[in-house]
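The passage that follows is intended for readers who have already worked through the single-chain material. We present the inputs for a multi-component assembly, then the predicted structure in tokenized form, and finally a short commentary. You are encouraged to pause after the input and sketch how you expect the pieces to fit together before reading on.
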Amino acid sequence: MKSVITYGTFDLLHYGHVRLLERAKALGDRLIVGVTSDSYDKERGKLNVHDSLARRMEAVRATGLADEVIVEEYEGQKIHDIRKYDIDIFAIGSDWVGKFDYLNEYCDVVYLERTKGVSSTELRKKEHELLRIGISGTGRIARRFIPEAHFVSGVEVVGAYNKTLNHAAEFAQEFDLEFATDNFEDFLAQVNTVYIASPHQFHFEQTMMALEAGKHVLCEKPFAMNEQEVHEAYSLAREKGVALVHGIKTAYCPAFEHLVLLAKSGRIGSIVDVDASFTKLEKPGVRELKNNGFGGSMLELSAYPLLAIVKLLGEEPNRQELFSSIKDGVDIFDRGFIEFSEAVGSFKVGLGAKTEGSLVITGTKGYIYVPAPWWKTSYFEMRFEDANATRKYFYSFDGDGLRYELLELVNLVSKGKTESDVLTEAETAFIVKMQNSLEYID
Ligand code: CTP
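Having made your guess, compare it with the prediction:
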């Protein structure tokens, strides 16, 4: 009996997949199909997969061509599977020619002609209307956003708004955008999605204008200036039936999502403490240090540690306390404590002071340590009393990470949802409330 194995993502199962499976099956007597797990796909940079693993496996099974459907979870698994299932032939589409020659040592490798004119990538693009994105604000983060958007399918950055027309025009020219404007209404009229990367004080106002006009919104942090504004924005998104995403990139990156699930799984017992820090030394005189009500370390940096705290400890603290170093009316460093019924969250943020930027989650059975820069989560360790029990987790945090928050928006739009489960309205309200909890000195 000849056994054949093949692998793939098999997202939105299509005719090309079925033809591949038919020909692979015909090579032998038994066909095993490996379907990539969600985390493995993310790890290898395949970000846009639409169907869940369960659904993709079910679709492969439903073809009636596979004798067995297994999950592919890690690099190097193929050799292991070939031995385990006593495989004679490894078959794969011709888009991979040469890439799997190394498996010839273990079995025959057959490349099958890929079916022309169909792919999951193309089908995914048709899942929702093309997102024509306009960027409000043309500063540093806006510049980083454009290359990141190239990694997300079904989106195109088409225009830029800045209240100074020259700045918008230069930006549009540099990045080859369709248009530039200093009129926000004109701006909205030409797009169906808005990325808000303007100065902090305009975030809420522009979010509301965009939602009111029926546009999907991805808003950078700080999302708003108080809790009330958060609820207003989410209510309006629901009323208009458009997607609203709070742009804290860490929330949507694969490693951080996994870390939160692991920490909550009970492996380190009950969580009693979350301690996170983020400092970034800035030169005096920069926007971030201006005493205009929109500067300072809390507003600029605390979204990240507050994200870790709210994801791990919830959004209902009993009390909180903040100790701040103020210089020229602006907090250059803050140390915060947030007390919950069974746990405490603490953080340090600083634009004018430097410290270790790690995240430690303390549990009754062990702890999770994420080294700096933990907010670009790519590696963490789970440690216990017995040092031999340490587990190490490796991921990739691709590029600047903004692709993850944009991808979340795309996913919401394609599912017709208005709000993310990954970072909810209640969690956003908690973060915004805490971010703005410092009384400024005039
Ligand atoms: N395949 C094929 N013909 C197509 C598309 C895919 O023969 N038109 C084959 C691939 O070569 C691979 C298997 O089907 O052996 C699974 O491919 P997968 O990567 O899941 O499908 P794609 O449509 O190529 O997905 P994507 O667009 O996400 O890369």
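Commentary: The pocket of cytidine-5'-triphosphate is lined by residues 8-11, 16-17, 20, 92-93, 95, 114-115, 118-121 (CB under 6 Å). DSSP finds 15 helices and 19 strands in the chain. How closely did your sketch match?
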